[in-house]
Amino acid sequence: CMSSNIDLRSRYITLFKTVSRIAYEAYQLIKLGICNISLPPGTILPGGRILQELSKNQFYEKLGVGYT
To answer: Measured between alpha carbons, how far is 10 from 5 in angstroms, rounded to an integer?
Structure first.
């Protein structure tokens, strides 16, 4: 983050670290198969092998959404 406003820069870095920590904790839960979690704004669900290990029906069921 580049900013001439030191206070704004500091608050942004703190926010970024908080969002990153929450997203990492959510990722760890998803790896355990717990999918009914809320991700922080601006983050996306992981893809690839982790979600392949869960069936689509199981994944969406745990999210509380019907899969068609």
So the answer is: 9
The single residue listed with the structure tokens 């608050």 is 11
- Name the residue with tokens 């969406």: 60
Torsion of CA 28, 31, 37, 41, to 10 degrees: 60
CA dihedral 58, 32, 35, 52 (to 10 degrees): -50
Q: Are 7 and 15 contacting, i.e. CB atoms less than 8 angstroms apart? A: no
Nearest-angstrom CA–CA distance, 6 and 60: 43
Asked if 45 and 30 touch (Cβ cutoff 8 Å), the reply is: yes
What does pTM read for this prediction?
Answer: 0.64
Mean pLDDT value of segment 9-25 = 92
